[in-house]
C-alpha cells in the first residue's frame, strides 16, 4: 500500500512535466501539450522535410537562430521557409515553439518571457484542439486535431524566398492580397531583401520580378493557354513538370508539380542577386542543378549592384565599385548582397554652400558601357560645354555626350560594362587627388637620372646578360599580367614552339603545335589558315572570344596578328583529344561514367555558347578531334568562335569535310540557313560515337559496313539498348543513362532542325532534370545506311 501511495504522489508531481513534453524524434506533429526547443525537430512523414532551429550555413556561429523548414535528406543545407526571418533569437535551448492558449503557433524566447513570432490566427473558437503538422510537401499547417483537412494557417500562404511544388503563386481578387516571394537580404541573413516575385499587380496574366516592391525589371509575358509568352519552357506540356495557370472568380494563381519521384527535390526561388531560379537536386552529383534562370542576363536585375557601381556579365563577381568609390558595406558584399552600393573614397571639393571650384574636381573616362538610368538631358553644343555644365552644378556627378549632353545627379544606378557591344562612354566626376596629373610624377625623372649615373659603370655586363635572355624574359613578363589576353610577337611563338617543330594535330582551321613558356607552362599554338580579316576586326573578335570563360571551354591565353600571320595560344590539355581515346591508339579505355561526364560537359559548353553568351556563338565544327581532355578527363571544347573569326571564308574551309558522312548537318549540304541546330546535329553524331567507342561509319573496301546511329535508333525502339555496348562496357552501365543518351542522340540528328532540341534542353535531359519522348528513327540516315557507298549521297 505504501508503494502504491508513493507512485501516486510521484505521478502527481510529474504531471506538469508530462504536459510540456517534447515531440517524439520521428513526429511530424506538435500538439498543445508539447514544445520544440534546442535541437529538437519535426520531420515530415516521408522524412524529406524537417522543421526546427537553424543557423544559415554561410554565417557560422554568430548567435542568430531561426525557426525554419529545410530538406532533411540533403547534405547541403537548403532552407525553404523561415518563420522569424526579421527577428532572430540568440539561444534555441532557452526558446520554445509551442501551441499557445489561443490556438496559435508561437515562438517564445528566453524561457517563455517574450513572444518573437506567431501565426496570428484570428477568431479561433476551438483553441484547445489545435495542432501543427509538417506535411510531406514541405508545408507547415496549423489545424484541428479532430479534422486535419481544415487549415487555420499554413506556411504555403506565408512565402519567404522559395516556391515549392504544389504551392500557389497567387493573387486574391477580393482582397487584392498577393503571395509574394521575397529574396533573403544576403546569404547569411534571411530577412527580406530588395527583390520579389509575384503575379502582376496590374492584373495581367503574367508574373513579374520587382526591385524594392516598385521597379519592374522582368516579366514572364502573358499566359497563352499553354505557357507564358516570354517563358515558353514553363508550359503545361513540359516533359518533366506539370505547370498550371488558373484564373477564376476568386483568385488567379500559377502552380507546378513534378511528374516523377526522381524530381521530388525541386524548388523555385528568388536569389539574393535578384534572379528567379529553379533547381533540382541531382543525387549522382550530390549538388543542386539550376535549370531555369530569369532574367537571362544577370545585369538586367535592377539595382543588383547598388549605387555608383558597374555590372559585368562576364565576371564571376558581377559587381564592382567605380574608380574613386568603395563598398558601402564590405561585409554584405562578401555575402553577395551588393544592393548597398558604393560611396566616394574622397569627397568632391565642390562647396557645401553651392559654390563651385572647377580646379578641384576632374573627370575619369569609362568607355563601352550601357549608360546609367535617370539621365537628364541639357543644352550643350559639344563635349567641353557638357563638361562645364556638370562642373557648374555640385550635385552633378557624371556626364556623357553622344550628340546630346546627358548629366547625372547624386548617384549612378544600373551601369553595365560593354553591354551588347555598346560604344557609349561616360565621364565620372572625382576629386583631383583621385586622378593625379603628370606633374606629380616629375620626381621620378630625377630618381631615374641619379640612379643611371650610379649604375652606368656596371651596365655593360648587364646589357650583355639582357640581350642573351631578352626573349625569354619578355615572354615571361607577358604572363605576369592581370589575366587579360597576351599579344605575342610571331618570333616569340617561334621561340616557345622551337620553330613549330612539334605538331599536336591538324583540323579544318589549321595546325596545332606544342609550346612551352619560360615559366614552364605548356601551351598549344594554333596557326590559322584561310583568314583574310583586317587586323582591327581580328583583334576585336579575339578579344570577345578571350572574355568567354566556362569550365568546359578551352581557355584562350593570347594571340598573334602580324600581317597574314594569325595565331592563337591556348592552354594545353594533358589527355589530348577525345578521338584518340575513343578510336585511336590510346591504351586508356574510357569508362561509362567518364564518357557520360564528357557528354554532359560538352553539352553544357555548347549551351553556354548558344544561350548564355552576350552574342550567340555557333561552333560549326563539333567532332571528337575538337574535344580536349584535362588531367581528370573533364572535357574542354576547342576552336569555339573560330567560325565567327573566319566569317565568309568559313564555308570554303569546310568544303573538304563534305566527302565523308561525318558530323555535318543536312543544312550544310542543302545550302540551308546555319543556326545553333547545326551544332546540335554534330553533337548528336558525336554522342553516338561516345556511346559506342567507335566511329559511326566504318569502311571496308570503300563500302559501308556499319552505321551506328540507325542501329542505335532501332535498338532503342526495341528496348534493347544494352546490346549496343562493347564487352569493355557491359558491366556497371546504368540502363536508364544509356537509354537517355541514345534518345538525346536520336533527337539531335533529325533532318528537320526544328525537331532537334536546344543544347540547354539536352543538358537537362542528360542530367535527369526532364524526360524526353521516344524519338523516331532518322529516316534520311536510314536511307544512307541502305546505300552501298557513302559517296552516293555525298558527292
From TrEMBL:
The keyword Signal appears for this protein: yes
The keyword Iron-sulfur is assigned to this record: no
InterPro entries, sorted: Bulb-type_lectin_dom, Bulb-type_lectin_dom_sf, Kinase-like_dom_sf, Pan_app, Prot_kinase_dom, Protein_kinase_ATP_BS, S_locus_glycoprot_dom, Ser/Thr_kinase_AS
GO terms, molecular function: ATP binding; carbohydrate binding; protein serine kinase activity; protein serine/threonine kinase activity
Residues annotated as transmembrane: 443-467
Catalytic activity: L-seryl-[protein] + ATP = O-phospho-L-seryl-[protein] + ADP + H(+); L-threonyl-[protein] + ATP = O-phospho-L-threonyl-[protein] + ADP + H(+)
Protein name (database record): Receptor-like serine/threonine-protein kinase
Lineage: Eukaryota, Viridiplantae, Streptophyta, Embryophyta, Tracheophyta
